[in-house]
C-alpha cells in the first residue's frame, strides 16, 4: 500500500509552527528573545520558508552557551539535512542556531552526531566538535542571505564530502538501508572497497520531524530515472523562482524598513518640538501670572492713593537732598543736562537754517564754556562727597571694634 501524501499532515504542522513563532517572537519583558524588534518579522519569515523547503528542520527555542560562558535563550532549527551520496538520500542531524544579531550576522551550524556516528577526521568544513564552517556562512550578506539557501549549500557540500560515518563494527549485520563508504583516496583502494565498507560507513537515519520514507536503492528503470530527473528540474526551477521572489520581497522590505526609520526620526522631531512648545507655553503662563499680579498691585495702589494729590506738585521740590553737597551736585547735574539740551536745540536749528552760523558759533562757545565749569564743579563735589564718606566710615571703626 502506498504511503499517504505528506501534505495532509503538513498543514497542521505548519499551523503549529506559525503559532509557535508568533508566540515566542511577540513576548516582552525578561522572557523575550534577544532579537531586535525590527528584525523579528524577517526571522519569522526565514524560519517559515526553511520549514516549507525542508520539513525535517523544525524551529524551537532553547538555551545556547557562548564561548565566554554566557547562556541565552535563542531560536534554532533542529533536525536533519538531506544529502545524496551514491544515488541514495541520507539525513545529517544538525542544529542551526540564530544568534542575537541574526539576520545581520550569520547563524551558527553544529552537527549532532549520535553515539553510533563519528565525524570524519580532517573534514574541510566540520571540526571535531561538530562546528560547521562553509563559504556561505563566511560570505553572509544581509538581507540577501537566508536559511533556505544556507541549507541548500550545506546539502550540496555534504553530498560531495559526507562529514558523518558509522562507527566500526567487527561483526556487521546487513543494514536495512544501504550506507555508502567514503570515496577512495587512490586507485589501489578500489579492490578493497567491499572490505572497507564494513569498517567505515556513513550514518543514515530519518529525522522524526520528516515524513520522507526510508531511502531505497534507485531503480534502473528508464521511466523512473526520467521521472526523477523531471522532478529535479521542476524543483530547481521552483527554487529559482522562490529565490527571485524572495530577493524582490527583501528589497521591498528594506524599503519599508528605511521608510519606517524615517518616520521614526520625524516622530522624534515632532515629539521634541511639541515638548519645547509645551515648555515655552508654561513659561509664558508663568510670566502672564506675574504680570497680572503686578497689575493688581498697581491698581490697588492707585485706588488707595486716588485723590490725595489735589494740589499741583512742584517738581523742583519733590526731591529733598540730605546735605549741602548733595544739593550742589543736584544743581550741577541739572545745569549740565539743561546746557546739553540747549546745545542740541541749537544744532537742530542750525541744520534747519533757522539761525545764522555766526550766532550759532557764538552761543555754542558760551554754552560749552558754562557746561565745562558745571562739569568741573560736579567733579569737585563728587570728590568731596567721597572724602565725607571715608571720614564717616573711619569714625565708625572704633565703635565696631569695641
Automatic annotation (TrEMBL):
Q: Which Gene3D superfamilies does the UniProt record give?
A: 6.10.140.820, Ubiquitin Conjugating Enzyme (3.10.110.10)
Where in the numbering of this chain does the SB domain appear? 323-391
Biased composition regions of type Low complexity, renumbered to the chain: 186-208
The record ties this protein, via Pfam families, to: UEV, Vps23_core
- State a single Gene Ontology molecular function: ubiquitin binding
Compartments reported by the entry: Endosome
Q: By its UniProt entry, which InterPro entries does this protein fall under?
A: ESCRT-I_UEV_domain, ESCRT_assembly_dom, SB_dom, UBQ-conjugating_enzyme/RWD, UEV_N
Q: Where is this region: Disordered?
A: 162-223
Record keywords: Thylakoid included? no
Q: Which domain of life is it from?
A: Eukaryota
Q: Which GO terms describe its biological process?
A: endosome to lysosome transport; protein transport
List keywords of the entry alphabetically.
Answer: Coiled coil, Endosome, Protein transport, Transport
> Where is coiled-coil annotated?
267-294
- Give the UEV domain ranges: 24-168
What protein name does the entry list?
Protein ELC-like
- What is the organism lineage in this UniProt record? Eukaryota, Viridiplantae, Streptophyta, Embryophyta, Tracheophyta
Amino acid at each position: 500500500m502506498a504511503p499517504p501524501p505528506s501534505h495532509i499532515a503538513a498543514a497542521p504542522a505548519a499551523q503549529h509552527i506559525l503559532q509557535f513563532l508568533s508566540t515566542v517572537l511577540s513576548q516582552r519583558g525578561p522572557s523575550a528573545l534577544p532579537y531586535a524588534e525590527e528584525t523579528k518579522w524577517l526571522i519569522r519569515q526565514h524560519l517559515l520558508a526553511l520549514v516549507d523547503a525542508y520539513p525535517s528542520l523544525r524551529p524551537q527555542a532553547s538555551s545556547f552557551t557562548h564561548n565566554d560562558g554566557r547562556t541565552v535563550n535563542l531560536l534554532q532549527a533542529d533536525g536533519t539535512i538531506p544529502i545524496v551520496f551514491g544515488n541514495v538520500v541520507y539525513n545529517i542531524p544538525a542544529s542551526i542556531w540564530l544568534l542575537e544579531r541574526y539576520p545581520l550576522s550569520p547563524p551558527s551550524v553544529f552537527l549532532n552526531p549520535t553515539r553510533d556516528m563519528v565525524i570524519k577526521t580532517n573534514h574541510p568544513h566540520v571540526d571535531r566538535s561538530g562546528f560547521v564552517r562553509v563559504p556561505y556562512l563566511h560570505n553572509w550578506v544581509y538581507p540577501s542571505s537566508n536559511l533556505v539557501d544556507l541549507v541548500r549549500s550545506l546539502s550540496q557540500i555534504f553530498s560531495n564530502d559526507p562529514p558523518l560515518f558509522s562507527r566500526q563494527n567487527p561483526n556487521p549485520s546487513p543494514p536495512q538501508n544501504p550506507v555508502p563508504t567514503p570515496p577512495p583516496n587512490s586507485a589501489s583502494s578500489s579492490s578493497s572497497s567491499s572490505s572497507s565498507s564494513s569498517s567505515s560507513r556513513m550514518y543514515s537515519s530519518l529525522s522524526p520531524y520528516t515524513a520522507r520514507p526510508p531511502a531505497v536503492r534507485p531503480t534502473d528503470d528508464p521511466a523512473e530515472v526520467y521521472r526523477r530527473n523531471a522532478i529535479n528540474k521542476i524543483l530547481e526551477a521552483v527554487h529559482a523562482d522562490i529565490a527571485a521572489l524572495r530577493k524582490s520581497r527583501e528589497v521591498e522590505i528594506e524599503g519599508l524598513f528605511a521608510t519606517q526609520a524615517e518616520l521614526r526620526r520625524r516622530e522624534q522631531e515632532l515629539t521634541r518640538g511639541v515638548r519645547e512648545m509645551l515648555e515655552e507655553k508654561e513659561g509664558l503662563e508663568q510670566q502672564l501670572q506675574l504680570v497680572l499680579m503686578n497689575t493688581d498691585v498697581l491698581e490697588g495702589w492707585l485706588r488707595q492713593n486716588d485723590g490725595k494729590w489735589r494740589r499741583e506738585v512742584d517738581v523742583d521740590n519733590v526731591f529733598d537732598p540730605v546735605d549741602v553737597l548733595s544739593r550742589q551736585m543736584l544743581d550741577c547735574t541739572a545745569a549740565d543736562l539743561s546746557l546739553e539740551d540747549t546745545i542740541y536745540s541749537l544744532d537742530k536749528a542750525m541744520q534747519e537754517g533757522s539761525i545764522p552760523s555766526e550766532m550759532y558759533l557764538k552761543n555754542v562757545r558760551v554754552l560749552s564754556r558754562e557746561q565745562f565749569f558745571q562739569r568741573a564743579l560736579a567733579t569737585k563735589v563728587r570728590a568731596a562727597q567721597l572724602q565725607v564718606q571715608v571720614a564717616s566710615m573711619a569714625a565708625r571703626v572704633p565703635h565696631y571694634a569695641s
